[in-house]
Task: structure prediction
Amino acid sequence: MIYINGNIENNRVEAEHFIDFIGKEVSLQGVIYKIREMSGFAFVLLQTKRHMVQCVWSEEFSLFPLSDLVCNMSVLLTAVVISEERSSTGCELRMKSIKKLSAPVEQTPIVINNRQVGVSLDILLQYRPITLRNERERAIFKIQEGLCSGFRKFFGENNFTEIHTPKIVYSGAEGGANIFKLDYFGKEAYLAQSPQFYKQMMVGVFERVFEIAPVFRAEKHHTARHINEYTSVDFEVGFIENYTEIMTYETKMLIETLDFLQAHYAYELNLLKVKIPTVNQIPAVDFEDAKCMLEKTYKRVSTDMEDFEPEEEKLLCDLIKKETGSEFVFVTRYKSSKRPFYAMETPGNSNVTESFDLLFRGLEITTGGQRIHDYDEQVEKMKNRGMNVDLFKSYLMAHQYGLPPHGGLGLGLERFTARLLDLPNVRQATLFPRDTERLEP
Amino acid sequence: MIYINGNIENNRVEAEHFIDFIGKEVSLQGVIYKIREMSGFAFVLLQTKRHMVQCVWSEEFSLFPLSDLVCNMSVLLTAVVISEERSSTGCELRMKSIKKLSAPVEQTPIVINNRQVGVSLDILLQYRPITLRNERERAIFKIQEGLCSGFRKFFGENNFTEIHTPKIVYSGAEGGANIFKLDYFGKEAYLAQSPQFYKQMMVGVFERVFEIAPVFRAEKHHTARHINEYTSVDFEVGFIENYTEIMTYETKMLIETLDFLQAHYAYELNLLKVKIPTVNQIPAVDFEDAKCMLEKTYKRVSTDMEDFEPEEEKLLCDLIKKETGSEFVFVTRYKSSKRPFYAMETPGNSNVTESFDLLFRGLEITTGGQRIHDYDEQVEKMKNRGMNVDLFKSYLMAHQYGLPPHGGLGLGLERFTARLLDLPNVRQATLFPRDTERLEP
Result:
């Protein structure tokens, strides 16, 4: 029997700390990213967890031949730290010796260590395990991590409880055809389109809940903004007075998360030259008014008076930005016909709902609103829609035995990341996207 | 057009801050949990986000009749704060007036506001939306949240990157029959049994990665320790020297997470009288040695020399606790035949692997180990197992183009929660469990 303690320290130095070792020898680990051979010396980029470390190999001070190094080789390096202002870490490393830890069988069929991986999106995704090694490609997902951390910080500070709800479900939240079916021990089951039912039930338990987890949509759309599995940032808040409170929560969440990103992910934001939008407040415009504004400004006749066409979302964002400076805009009070059965209707006008979308840089990234909390009201609306209330018995249990007034939203993490980084296709902000054509890798 | 700012302040006071309002009037929101009527006055428990607030209704100072209150009613309460040592919040609230926000249609068919919900596990789960409202039931999941927050804190401080990997996959990580199939736009797809392939690929990108997300196992076992969808805490670390490093990481993660829990979740830990294990170091015993120890101590002949029977896991934990005081024990070097194709074999002995399980209070909660990073070695092992290497092309891309030595683990969140809280059935630590019989709610 041996004992394992929790001491994970070793003598390796992280790139962030080189600055404390100027003139000294350090050990570090990383992957050879790029080798630029000059006469008698070479620049070698070493990729570490987060940073790209600028190293120099030279006949003068390196104890091994340059030919020992190949790209994508994992090494343990011993080097002397030299101050170098032009490097992003403020240092340059004079390579002394290396220990080879693993090596590739062959070089990548695609050049991955240039500024951009110069291939089509299809090839980029097909070779995801290696194209993600590109410095800029991986920075996208470091920023995505930052978004999640920022959201969770907001949730923690505002007394939300994190929940884990099932993804194999007995019934679809939104219903309809856009749902994946599976055989569950002889029963028909579905993949959750959203944690909607569960987060509403949990309002009755924790008052405020959130979940950041995968959701599944069997939509056949193959566009730049659709994927069939995505990460949904969901929250639900009890004891609200109206749906604008939910927009207030989202505004605060966005302000604080973007601040958090700038404080902790400056390295990646600079690398990708991200323009972080300034947010103090977000304009909100009624759906009907938005339609009128579009008609008036662009002289365009809409074919769909109940929803926006994708082009209209772009035009509306342009217009709002011009008029208010804001890159975000809430559109409120969508038609009841376009919203699910749990959406609260506007008092006195059952044709519209106490709901909103948030558009950002031309794309809808959030859907939210107030939900029906009254049992009788909910059952009546379901019956009016011809739904079989019995199928929703366990969901309605929450309403039946008392549920505070509440509302919430879902935000698509990949869509938000894509618009924030000005990536034209949501797949570029998805680690391993799933679409109608793509199931691998 | 209106503007939404991020100001979510209102005049309501959270239970944690009552102590600053002694003698003053406060507004607060909550759900009537329990009413205990006395003569001329009544004790009323109000459930808030996290705390149970002790209130007193009295003819003397309450401006509404007691009959206005029913359990499971959501109210906005105005009350005067009185110091009261015997209350968990240090205060008692003299109810002045209430505003009814929503009310149940009827009272719950099960008594949910006693110390325990006194029903069978089946009924407890069937009525989950309301049984979770029980103070002790919900505390289980508040502690589970604390575990996740503690893990994430550890990951953040140790430079891990959070990833979101797909749950609809083209191939099972472990293979075998225990996998859910679904129709994916005419192709056969599966639900991920673990993020194994993806986290290994991502070691080549971020060096250290983690994910806390659902995984799916179509196992037909219907036992107290099996559920078919669970939350897996996964991490993977590059540049390790051997698999004991992964155990070191886990030990540190557990020490820090249990400390975090005690610092931030004392309220729930006290409520459930949780005995937090003390961990400084964790004993590790070779699988073969463990089998011998069991044979010697308990004079028991094992029928399965390649794995533990559940009873053996319990006996081993008892034995280790008696001998070392530790409630955790690592078992190392499991047989190759019992480990997946990516498990690294022990140099010089291909019958055993550089792997481990972590047992805690009689139950396996973690499986981990070092993985094969060398492409040729991996391909050879797959061929020896009769696997079709072509099906794993995109996974093997990571190895082919260079992958650092690495290893990692998966920890079952619900199992860990259950053992930590001494809950006999893992379903009790699962918000909405999925098992062979249960798909709803």
